[in-house]
Amino acid sequence: MNKDLKDKTLQDLEKVVVALGQKPYLAGYLFKFIHVQNGREIAGISTLSKAFRTQLAEQEYFISQLKVVDALTDRDGSAKYLFELADGERIETVLLPEEERMTLCVSTQVGCPMGCAFCATGRIPLRRNLTAGEIVDQVNTVEEHAGRITNLVYMGMGEPFLNYDAALKSIRILNHSAGKNIGIRHITISTSGIVPGIKKLADEEIRPRLAISLSAPTDTLRSRLMPVTDKYPIAELLEAVRTYQAATGQRVTFEYVLIDKINDTITHAHLLVKLLRGLMYNVNLIEHNPFTGCEFTGSSRERIQRFASALKEAGVETTIRFRMGRRIKAACGQLQAGYHPRKQAKEM
Ligand code: SF4
Q1: Which residues is 95 bridged to in the sheet?
Q2: So what's the pLDDT on residue 336?
Q3: How far does the centroid of ligand 1 lie from the alpha carbon of residue 52, in Å?
C-alpha cells in the first residue's frame, strides 16, 4: 500500500485513521493540514495528539514533497517549474496567470507514449505514471511560490487517460471542499483521444471539463500528426463524445494545433465544421510551438485569424490561444524536463 498521505482522498484517510484505532474525524485534520496548509511533516500536525503522530510515523506513513529543481519566469508572466520526484525522475508544470485566473497546467506522466508529431513531450519515451499525490503536489508546491491556483488543466506531460485512476483521484482531492476546493468547472482534463477514457469519464459522478486534441479533420492527416488515430479513428472518437454528451449533457472543447499549410487551410476549417456537426462544442485554436527536431512550422497569425474567421462564420465558438511561455519552453507541446528526445518513431 502506498503510505503517502498526500496520495489519499479524504475517504482514504478516514480508512487509514480508523484502521489505526482513531476517530474518523481526525482524517479531516490530516487532509486540511496537507491540502490547505500545505504541511509536509507529520510531526507538525498540531491538531493531532503526539501519540497519534508517532503512530503514523511508526507505520511509515509520510507526506511526499516534490523538489523544485528550477523555476523560470517568462516576461509574459508565465512560469515553468522543473520538479524532481522521489525516484529522481523529472516533470514540468506550467503556471499561466491571466487577469483574475491563475491556471496551472499539470503533468500526469513522466514522458508520453502518444508521439504527437507537433509535441516535444511526445519525443520523450514514457518512463512512468505519476501518482495522484505527485499530481496534487504540483499544485501544492506552486501555490507556495505563486499564490492560490484557481484553474487546472491536465495538459502537461503525458496522456491523462492512460493514467486514468491517478488523474481522477487527484481531481477528487483537489476539488474537495475540505481541501483546495478548486471548482470542478475550473478543472479541464485533456486527452489526445483515448476512447475508453472518454466513455469512463461519462460514468463518473465527478465532472471536470473535457477537452480533446483533434488537430485534423480527416483520419489520414490526423494519423500523420497524432498516431493515436490509428487505434482510435475519428469516427470512433466522435462516437465516444456523443456517448459522453448523452450521459452528461456537457459541451466539450476541441483543441486544434495550427501547422503551416498542413492543417490550416479554409478547406480544413470547413471539413472540421462538417465533421463536428451535431455536437455541443467549442474550438480552441493553439499556435504551434517550435522545438529542436520538429519538421513543422506554426501557422502565421494571419492564417490563424483566417481559420478562426471561417469557423466563426459557420457559428462555431472559437478561441485563439496565443502562446505564453515560449521563451522559457513552457508553451503547449514544449515540455521536455531536460530528457533527451528520441527520434520520431513514425516517419512522416
Ligand atoms: S500533445 Fe499531449 S498526448 Fe500528444 S505527445 Fe504531447 S503530451 Fe503526449
Answers
A1: 79, 104
A2: 78
A3: 43
Q: What mean pLDDT value characterizes the chain?
A: 93
Residues of the chain with pLDDT under 70: 333, 342-348
Does domain 67-328 fall into CATH 3.20.20.70?
Answer: yes
Tell me which residue has cell 499530481: 135
pLDDT at 232: 98
pLDDT for position 343: 58
How far is the centre of ligand 1, averaged over its atoms, from the C-alpha of 207 (Å)? 22
The hierarchical CATH code for the domain 5-58 is: 1.10.150.530
Q: How many Å lie between the centroid of ligand 1 and the Cα of residue 243?
A: 24
CA nearest to 6, candidates 62, 85, 84: 62
Mutating to test ligand 1, I would choose from 112, 155, 212 the residue with most ligand atoms within 8 A of its C-beta, which is 112
Residue 65 CB neighbours (<10 A): 17
Q: Where in the chain is the domain with CATH 3.20.20.70?
A: 67-328
Residue limits of CATH 1.10.150.530 in the chain: 5-58
C-alpha cell belonging to residue 55: 503512530
For residue range 32-67, list pLDDT tens digits in order: 999 999 999 999 999 999 999 999 999 999 999 999
Residues whose beta carbon lies within 6 Å of some atom of ligand 1: 112, 114-116, 119, 121-122, 157-159, 192, 213, 333
Report the catalytic residues. Answer: 92, 332
Under 8 Å CB-to-CB from 74, ≥6 apart: which residues? 80, 324, 325, 326, 327, 328, 330
Q: Give the residue, by CA position, lying nearest to ligand 1 atom 4.
A: 116
Q: Which residue of 114, 191, 212, 287 sits with most ligand 1 atoms within 8 Å of its CB, as the best mutation to test the pocket? A: 114
Atom of ligand 1 nearest to the CA of 157: 7
pLDDT on residue 37: 94
Note whether 323 and 78 are within 8 A (CB): no
